[in-house]
Each structure stands twice: as C-alpha cells, then as structure tokens.
Design brief:
By secondary structure, this protein is mostly beta strands. The chain contains two helices and 28 strands. Strands 2-6-17-7-10-16-15-12-13 form a nine-stranded mixed beta sheet. Strands 1, 3, 4, 5, 8, 9 and 18 form a seven-stranded mixed beta sheet that branches. Strand 22 and strand 23 form a beta hairpin. It is flat. The protein starts with a strand and ends with a strand.
C-alpha cells in the first residue's frame, strides 16, 4: 500500500534580535503570479507560518522510503513578495535611512553565507544581517542608461542573474556619451544586469511592483546548479533535503538623550541618572526649542534597542532617588543626525 504525505520542501524564517524571542513578526509573504504557476505544476502548497513561510510537497511512501510524487526539474525558481506589516521597522532595525524610493530588498539562496547552522539569505559575509548590500534598484519595462565614455562605441548588454546575455546592441559615442535604451517588456520580473563592454554598470529588478503593490522586497529560491551544496533543497533527481533559510535583521543602536523638566519638583538640585550599577551620569542645563529649561543627560555611547526594556534606570537628586525606573526610549521617536546618518538619537522627556 502506498501512503501519501505532505512534507516540507523548504522554509524561510525571519529572525530579529530586537525581539526577546529572536523572531520577527513584521512581515507577510505571498507567492508571485509566476511562482503560483510553478507551485501548481508540481503540486506544491505554500503556507505562511508564525516565523515566515514554508512550501510543502506531496510525497509517497513505498517500502519505508518517502519520495516526491512529482520530482522537480533542475532549473526552477520560486519567488515570493515580502510585505511589511509594521511601518516603524526601520526605527529599531539596523537598516539604511537613505534608500531611494525605487529601491527594494532582495534575498536569494545563491549566497554561501552560513552563520553557524543558519543558511542565511543575506549578502554581507561579515555582519551576517540585512543591510545596504541587500538593496536592489528597481526598473520598469523600459530601462535607459547614459555615461560619459571616451570610446567611439560600446557594446551594451542585458544579462540575467546567471550572466546569460538576453539583449545586446552596439551604441555609438555622441558628444562624449554612450546613451541607450532597452525594452524589457518580454522579460519576466527578475534580477538583471546592464553591462557596458563587459563591465556591470547596474543591477536591477524589473517590474517588482507587479509582484505585489509596493513590497518591502522579494525572496527568490532557486533549484539549479548555481545553488551552493548546503543550500540545495533537492538534488538533480528531485530527491528532497529539507532546508530552512534565514533572513536575519539586527537591532539598531541609538544614542540616548533624557530631557528632565522640573514641572513639580522645582527645588530638586544636582540631578543624576544611573543605569544599574554603572557610574551615575550628571546632566547639563539645556533650553528646549520652546524656551523651556531642562536638564539634558546625553549618554554619548550608543545603546542597542530591545523589546525587553533595561530596568533600574534611576533619576536622583543629591543622592535621593526620585524615579526608580525611568522609561527606555521608545522606537517611535528616533532622530538620525542630518550630517551623519550613522548617528541616531533616541529622546525621552521626563517631567518631575
């Protein structure tokens, strides 16, 4: 007798060390139109999970061995839209503030970038979490390119992610510039490269908004020979080796600032703030933009934002504790330094 099962083919989970659980709850996922066709072709089922999403395959068991009912060919791609459910993710995540409006995040299983047992889908081999290296420019069906160039002509090509040339034209130099335009309407939504005389000038994702209205990003899971061995969820014969892929986000570090305003205890002198057993910090007089006098405590060194707040932040006056547990900075109120985006401030206003 043959028994039929539905087993995991692969799954993607999103981790975020801001959360005490270590898992992100900030995203929704859906297969793209093209992916739905591929899922149907092989009888696969997509399912969102509390950690991300999973794809299941139909397997039969014969003689104690489970094998796919419909083994996959060796050149398939599964693409998924990644949708942001929490608008202030960037506030508590170590993500760039200066992404252009047309840029999105892109992840795939072609990077051999493991972190211990985690099969990461992020690019950065050092930090091991999402940052600017995972950002990709987006394009519509028409892409234009222009550059200053001293050569009399140049060969401009459009290649796919695996360096297969799809379009090519020779462009003459006019007034010291190479200028060209390509119609990409016949190409599926995917990552492409534009090269000039063999040098990649830009990498872009075509028609990302057709996958989902204004997605945070796209995840592509490939089954082909370019996938690193540890990242392959099935071999060339279609035999499955379940893989769990990970997208790792990192919490943001900010410079904390406390503004203490004497509203009721106007006689409280010599204010100080102490975090746990650390030395107390003394404040300095500071006039707020509306003219209110306050005492500013500038922590100067960045602190990581966490879901679980730091306790025992004491506000004292001449050694007498006025507030036993000051609130931690909220994730809603952060201010990047206009002149240095690597510096981010968190501000808290305390009335005593």
């Amino acid at each position: 007798m043959t028994t039929i099962y539905y087993l995991k083919l692969f799954e993607v989970i999103v981790k975020h060390d801001y959360y005490t659980s270590g898992l992100s709850v900030d995203f929704g996922f859906s297969p793209t139109k093209e992916c739905k066709v591929t899922l149907s072709k092989y009888g696969l089922i997509f399912k969102e999970t509390t950690m991300g999403f999973a794809v299941f395959y139909e397997a039969r068991e014969t003689g104690g061995v489970k094998t796919p009912v419909r083994p996959m060919s060796n050149d398939e791609k599964f693409s998924f839209a990644m949708v942001l459910n929490r608008n202030n993710l960037i506030n508590f995540s170590e993500l760039p503030f200066d992404n252009a409006s047309g840029e999105r995040y892109y992840f795939d299983n072609l990077n051999d970038n493991k972190n211990s047992s985690d099969l990461l889908l992020v690019d950065d081999p050092v930090k091991k979490y999402v940052d600017k290296d995972d950002v990709v420019e987006t394009s519509s069906n028409i892409i234009s390119y222009s550059e200053s160039n001293a050569n009399p002509s140049a060969v401009v090509r459009i290649l796919d992610k695996f360096d297969t040339a799809l379009l090519s034209k020779t462009v003459n130099n006019i007034a010291g510039k190479i200028t060209c335009q390509f119609d990409l309407s016949f190409l599926e939504p995917a990552v492409y490269k534009l090269q000039v005389d063999g040098i990649t000038k830009k990498t872009f994702y075509k028609n990302i908004k057709t996958l989902y209205d204004n997605p945070f990003g796209v995840i592509e899971i490939f089954k082909n020979n370019s996938v690193p061995a540890d990242y392959k969820f099935a071999d060339t014969a279609g035999n499955v080796s379940l893989k769990q892929y990970v997208i790792q986000f990192h919490r943001r570090s900010t410079i904390w600032k406390y503004y203490v305003i004497k509203k009721y205890k106007t006689s409280a002198p010599n204010l100080s703030i102490q975090v746990g057993a650390n030395p107390a910090i003394t404040g300095s007089a500071f006039v707020l933009p509306d003219g209110t006098d306050s005492t500013l405590f500038d922590f100067s060194s960045p602190s990581e934002l966490k879901e679980k707040p730091i306790e025992s932040i004491k506000l004292s006056s001449n050694g007498t504790v006025l507030v036993q547990n000051l609130p931690n900075p909220g994730i809603e109120n952060i201010k990047p330094d206009k002149n240095d985006l690597s510096k981010v401030y968190s501000e808290v206003y305390i009335y005593i």
